[in-house]
Specification:
Blueprint: H1 4-16, E1 23-24, E2 33-35, H2 37-45, H3 49-59, E3 70-72, E4 76-79, H4 83-95, E5 109-113, H5 125-143, E6 147-151, H6 160-171, H7 180-196, H8 198-212, H9 216-240, H10 256-268, E7 273-275, E8 278-281, E9 290-293, H11 301-314, E10 320-326, H12 330-342, E11 351-357, E12 360-361, H13 378-386, H14 391-403, E13 411-412, H15 415-418, H16 426-445, H17 459-468, H18 471-481, H19 485-504, H20 512-535
Parallel strand pairs: 5-6, 5-10, 10-11, 12-13
Antiparallel strand pairs: 1-2, 2-4, 3-4, 7-8, 8-9
Helix pairs in contact: 2-3, 4-17, 4-20, 6-7, 6-8, 7-8, 10-11, 11-12, 13-14, 16-19, 16-20, 17-19, 17-20, 19-20
């Protein structure tokens, strides 16, 4: 649904020939929007701005949307939307099952790679960001009518499993009693031993060979470690309220059987070459090559990610692939994207995008860590927030703090600020939703009914209706540019406008059609807030 602001812009641009750069009016007496388009045209046309403005007012066809246009000051044009137009837009939202979110004309298959924890290790602070961000993209793109295929590229393959399995055998460890925390402690013991005991290191290397060649007993222990880890991951996902399930897991091991074939294919076509005994691909625009197979015959992240791109493009049929990882991995993904395209595995018709995120910082401005100074687990952050508020409010605080900043920037994990019910926070948005619901619940209890938004005489209610009309457009923008802070900013503006409306426009104390219309406006606001919060992965409580 095209917002009223965009509709108005297109009409003015048709008459002026340039972007009118519509801006919200600074005061109600100036209407809803102002444009300085006449002042910008004055220089090129060599005429006074007010004269140009007068000509434009004659040509701009907005009588169905606006009151008669006004010229102010040196040549500004003021636009005041007709109250009935604003009312109709709000009413349309109430009736729309998609809450104004346009469904894509050409639905795409979109693969989103996110979360990606490592087997036998608890999720750390970084996993909080990738999981929350990826979950938001999943929700926004699904709501926009696309088919989203989440891919959880867990670290379930590699040399570390040799030492883990040897340590398990040496300790005669009962895996039935192992949880993810115990698996991480096992990892630490095995890693310390690997550094100190050369005989153990030799056995660990031999065990990796056994794993890779399919030894039945080795594979059984490896599989059990994955199962233990999945339980821990799922507990974290459930606690975070995200959409990931076991069906979304396609870990490093999933692509292992493809690696030899990819190397052979690219070498036979001259795309991959031997350089310093390693098999590499040189891609245009990159100083260093992608290393498919190292000089010892081992496969690394580069070739595994090329295999994943090939699988996702050719088997899953992706039209768009989005990778959500630490910003520091941007070069790696740009390189493997280039290799996959050079190989012809990913065509130019398929979009590949890396969305990098910054670090989570403590209040001291340093990377968030435990009291012991080590990198914090994801669960530590959740516990810290839940010490202050209930779980739904804590999650709102964490997710909103994460998503409301530009993703590439670091953000400070300040529990007291994040959990406040005032200011630009997730709980503040929840509170606005609960307030709207409280008004509607009281009306129902008193037997007061409402239907459509019909009367919008006050500036505060007009502004609220105008903001509501922008929701679908904001969601479309986030679906396109993958910048969720724009949705957060919008929802904060909407919650603030709801607060002003609540203070300046009595709802239950008004009467007749005005009361019914204001109740309908509350219902539309509640609906948009709930939908918007849902897209962020945040619960919209009925009361707080």
């Amino acid at each position: 649904m095209l917002s009223l602001a965009s509709l108005l812009t297109s009409r003015v641009e048709a008459a002026a020939g340039i972007d009118p750069e519509m801006r919200p009016a600074t005061k109600p007496q100036f209407g809803h929007f102002q444009s300085n388009v006449a002042l910008r045209l004055a220089k090129s046309e060599g005429r006074p701005p007010r004269q140009i403005a007068a000509d434009l007012v004659e040509r701009i066809e907005v009588a169905d949307l606006c009151e008669p246009l006004e010229i102010a000051g040196p040549g500004f044009i003021n636009f005041r939307l007709r109250p009935e137009v604003l009312a109709a837009a709000a009413t349309e939202l109430l009736a729309d099952p998609h809450t104004g979110i346009d469904q894509a004309e050409r639905a795409q298959k979109i693969v989103i790679d996110y979360s990606s924890p490592n087997v036998a290790k608890q999720m750390h602070v970084g996993h909080l960001r990738t999981t929350i961000i990826g979950d938001c993209f999943n929700r926004v793109l699904t709501a926009s009518g696309h088919t989203v295929i989440p891919q959880n590229h867990v670290g379930d393959w590699g040399r570390q499993f040799g030492m883990l399995i040897e340590q398990i055998l040496d300790e005669n460890l009962d895996l039935d009693g192992l949880d993810l925390n115990g698996a991480e402690e096992l990892y630490k013991r095995a890693n310390e031993r690997l550094k100190a005991d050369e005989a153990f290191a030799d056995r660990a290397r031999a065990r990796v060979v056994a794993l890779q060649s399919g030894d039945e007993d080795t594979r059984a222990i490896w599989s059990r470690l994955i199962d233990v880890s999945k339980v821990g991951f799922n507990e974290a996902y459930h606690r975070l309220g995200v959409l990931l399930t076991d069906d979304d897991i396609a870990g490093e091991s999933f692509y292992n059987a493809m690696l030899e074939g990819i190397c052979a294919d690219l070498e036979s076509r001259g795309i991959a070459v031997i350089d310093d005994e390693a098999l590499v691909v040189f891609a245009d625009g990159f100083d260093a090559p992608a290393i498919l197979r190292n000089r010892h015959g081992g496969y690394g992240y580069d070739v595994t990610d090329v295999a994943a791109l090939k699988y996702r493009a050719q088997t899953l049929g992706a039209d768009r692939m989005i990778y959500v990882t630490d910003a520091r991995q941007h070069h790696h993904f740009e390189l493997v994207f280039a290799v996959a395209r050079k190989a012809g595995y990913v065509t130019d018709a398929i979009a590949t995008e890396h969305v990098g995120y910054g670090m989570v910082l403590g209040r001291d401005g340093r990377p968030f860590s435990t009291r012991e100074g080590t990198a914090a687990y994801l669960i530590d952050l959740l516990d810290a927030a839940e010490e202050h508020v209930t779980r739904p409010v804590a999650l709102a605080a964490i997710k909103y703090a994460d998503l409301s900043n530009q993703l590439q920037k670091d953000y400070v994990f300040d529990v007291e600020r994040m959990t406040a019910t005032t200011g630009d926070t997730g709980p503040y948005l929840q509170y606005a939703h609960a307030r709207a619901n409280q008004i509607l619940r009281r009306a129902e209890a008193e037997g007061i009914t409402w239907g459509e938004v019909t009367v919008l005489a006050e500036p505060a209610e007009q502004n609220l209706a105008l903001l509501l009309s922008r929701f679908g457009e904001i969601v479309a923008l986030v679906a396109s540019d993958l910048q969720p802070h724009k949705l957060c900013t919008y929802l904060f503006e909407l919650a603030t406008a709801m607060s002003v409306f609540y203070e300046q426009c009595p709802v239950l104390k008004s009467e007749g059609e005005v009361r019914a219309s204001r109740l309908a406006l509350c219902a539309a606001t509640k609906k948009v807030l709930a939908t918007g919060l849902g897209l962020l992965g945040i619960e919209a409580p009925d009361q707080m």
